[in-house]
Specification:
The chain has 755 residues and is α+β, with helices and mostly antiparallel strands. It is built from 17 helices and 26 strands.
């Protein structure tokens, strides 16, 4: 029993062993024939070595098994790379968790493929963890697809970023009044696209620009060269140092790449090295110094050695310079520093093509916007110049106190259908014209300009108002003027030297216009004689009426805009004007006009023109109590004679208001009006206000540039005007419409500033 039992147990064990050996052989054959490349490594060595590979592994990499067994997987790694890091992999497999990674590998024929490696520890054995099994899969197609997808996403992202930035630039350029629009665009370019960006406009020389100057500088070429060479100049372009010249000796051997780009000889973009050795006076030298300063680079004088900072120095940074093109010329440049370290970035070579395309588009859009805004400004300025040439004018008439006022209702035009003229016909005769063309649009203004020229021509040819209007009728019929108009033409003849009564003789003729008013000692008379049809509708000779103006009398000529309102008839408006004129207490023409405007012109619905002529009365002027508004205004032509008129107006007003420091006020207004005449354009508006503690002077012109305080001109006279104003008054300025308003508050004698 025991023997048989023992024999039976031995036979069972032998069968199990045989069965297990058969399964092991089956596993070996299965792994050898498996389609997944498999390798077993001996991890007990310092460098894991191959102990077994299957046929799929051999087929995948092309190496025979005997060449692989005993070696390492290093032969599968590309140059400079590795398939696995034994030490790191051992640490990862320490907890018996499989590890998967992807690595770039090389076949026996040198072709490259991407493989996914999945490693696990082989359990059992005398030394646990001594062997690793790694399954290898060819994932080249998946990796390439992923890379292609990533590239597509990157391209799409870059395109979206480009479109977003272009859209943002377009949005910013819609608000060209924003003074920092170019700085905003440069800031957005610096957000991940370039290391630094900035615009430089070529307005008579390169200038760093944060906004778009509507009226670019028109300095002479010597001023541009002087500034680019570092010669210090004042606000008017003159050298600051006595005896210093703004002329610069230019070298002819150097070809300035920036000047070629700005002059349109090359299209760019340029790779511009920020070298310090460009010739003085060149645009390249100026931009190099400017950029080195803005980037915080050491100045050329701080470098040591003759070779430092030359074109061959690899530490010299380069920037990309793109032209900002306009319709007819290059308006400036866009300078960008490629991303990366400042030193070693080599211009266009350091900027990818997508970024270069974007910079090109941005530069073109900015150039188009600059061109458009400046073209509009030029056309607007031309239109304003034409309008200003049509504005009413007032000549100085010795012996008469004359005040005029004009205000068109249009918000977009300086002129309308109303006009006036005060003409100095000869030493004995002055001419007065006031007229009104139907409407207050552009056509009305054009008609006004025609009629004004015609009346002025005949006024200087004929002496009597009636014949003047008769000739005007005849010419207007032939001109086929599209709008009807009314007017009053009057002449004032100076009294003879031997006359017993110093009365001026007024002759006038009316062509469908409202009657002038004669104000005498509080009584108002309507001068309704010599009436007739509208201009061009007269059927015969025009009549002439006359009246004498005595000292203290005032004549008021006006258009219907002063009295016409929707809520009352024209007759009621005329009655209101007569009542207002009867209550006038002022003894100067400007005061009379201000009182009438204060009572009647608070909300005009049409163009308003007013002319007040007063014959001074030395006997009563200055002794009559005045209750008129303590404000005055005048519209002066931009000519030197206006300086004297402004001084006389201030002196007369200060005496009427009994204000002190008349000489100081006269000097301040003289300087302010002189600045408007010399440096401004268009008519000059002068306003005076009694603030209760002194005189406030306001001077307005059409030049938007602020006044500049200088220390005089080193090489010529002048330049101290605003210093005089600053010593005598508190002053300031503010934008006003298309120009500026400069104000000055006269200080009392005890509060003057000392130099």
């Amino acid at each position: 029993m025991d023997v048989s039992s023992h024999g039976t147990g031995d036979r069972a064990t032998t069968a199990e062993v045989a069965q297990e050996d058969g399964l092991g052989a089956l596993r070996d054959r299965a792994l050898q024939a498996a389609g997944t490349a498999t390798v077993v490594l001996d991890a007990s060595q310092d460098v894991p070595t191959v102990v077994w590979v299957n046929d799929a592994f051999v087929h995948l990499f092309g190496h025979p098994s005997d060449a692989l067994v005993g070696g390492t997987l290093a032969r599968l790694a590309p140059a400079g790379g590795g398939v696995l890091d034994g030490g790191r992999l051992a640490a990862s497999l320490a907890d018996r968790t499989p590890v998967v990674w992807t690595a770039r590998s090389v076949r026996a024929d040198g072709s490259v493929l991407w493989c996914e490696y999945s490693a696990a520890v082989v359990p059992g054995g005398e030394t646990p963890g001594a062997h690793w099994v790694i399954l290898v899969s060819d994932v080249t197609r998946h990796v390439e697809q992923r890379e292609e997808q990533e590239r597509s996403i990157a391209v799409e992202r870059a395109a979206r970023t480009t479109l977003d930035l272009i859209s943002l630039v377009s949005d910013l350029l819609t608000d060209l009044d924003y003074p920092y629009v170019l700085r905003e665009i440069a800031t957005h370019l610096q957000r991940g696209l370039v290391g630094w960006a900035g615009f430089f406009l070529d307005d008579a020389g390169l200038r760093h620009a944060e906004g778009i100057a509507v009226n670019p500088g028109t300095e002479r070429t010597s001023y541009r060269l002087a500034r680019e060479a570092g010669v210090h100049v004042d606000a008017l372009g003159d050298a600051r140092a006595p005896g210093e010249s703004t002329g610069v000796t230019m070298t002819t051997a150097f070809i300035d790449p920036l000047r070629d780009l700005l002059d349109g000889h090359v299209s760019g973009p340029l790779s511009f090295a920020l070298r310090p050795d460009y010739p003085a006076g060149s645009a390249a030298r100026w931009l190099s110094v400017e950029m080195r300063t803005r980037l915080g680079l050491p100045d050329a004088t701080e470098t040591d050695g003759s070779a430092a900072g030359t074109a061959h120095d690899p530490a010299v940074p380069s920037v990309v310079v793109s032209a900002v093109p306009g319709r007819r010329r290059v308006l400036g440049i866009l300078v960008t520093l490629p991303t990366g370290p400042v030193a070693g970035a080599r211009g266009v070579a350091g900027t990818d093509p997508t970024t270069m395309t974007l910079l090109h588009v941005v530069a073109r859009r900015v150039g188009m916007a600059i061109d458009n805004v400046r073209l509009y400004a030029r056309e607007h300025q031309l239109a304003e110049t034409l309008q200003r040439s049509m504005l009413p004018e007032q000549a100085d008439i010795p012996g008469l106190d004359v005040w005029t006022y004009y205000a068109p209702t249009s918000e977009h035009a300086q002129v309308g259908g109303d006009w006036y003229d005060v003409l100095h016909i000869d030493e004995q005769v002055a001419g007065l014209v006031i007229g009104d063309v139907v409407g207050h649009d552009v056509e009305a203004a054009a008609t006004m300009g025609q009629l004004r020229s015609v009346v002025r021509s005949y006024a200087f040819e004929l002496a009597t108002p009636g014949p003047v209007l008769t000739r005007v009728d005849q010419l207007v019929v032939g001109m086929r003027v599209p709008r009807s108009a009314s007017l009053v033409y009057a002449t004032l003849r100076r009294p003879a030297p031997d006359a017993t009564t110093p009365a001026w003789r007024l002759e006038y003729s009316r062509a469908g216009h409202l009657p002038p008013l004669l104000v005498r000692d509080g009584d108002v008379s309507q001068l309704s004689g010599a009436g007739g049809a509208l201009v061009g509708y007269g059927t015969g000779d025009r009549q002439t009426a006359s009246v004498e103006l005595l000292p203290g009398d005032a004549l008021v000529l006006y258009t219907d805009g002063l009295i016409e309102r929707r809520d009352r008839s024209l007759r009621a408006g005329l009655a209101a004007l007569v009542t207002a004129a009867e209550r006038v207490t002022a003894t100067d023409a400007a005061g009379i006009g201000e009182e009438l405007l204060a009572r009647l012109a608070d909300a005009p619905e049409d163009d308003v023109a007013v002319v007040v002529v007063r014959v001074p009365d030395p006997g009563t002027d200055g002794t009559t109590a005045v209750m008129s508004p303590r404000s005055r205004r005048w519209l002066l032509p931009s000519e030197p004679a206006s300086i004297g008129r402004a001084r006389h107006a201030v002196v007369r007003t200060c005496r009427t208001w009994e204000l002190p420091d008349v000489a100081n006020a006269e000097l301040v207004v003289s300087e302010l009006v002189a600045n408007g005449v010399l440096h401004g354009w268009g008519h000059i508006a002068l306003r005076l206000f009694d603030t209760g503690d002194g005189l406030r002077i306001e001077v307005e012109d059409s030049n938007p540039s602020p006044p500049v305080t200088t220390d005089g001109h080193a090489n010529r006279l002048g330049g101290y005007g605003m210093q005089i104003v600053e010593r005598l008054a508190d002053w300031g300025w503010r934008p006003s419409g298309t120009g500026k308003l400069v104000w000055a508050k006269i200080r009392t004698s005890g509060t003057l500033r000392r130099s």
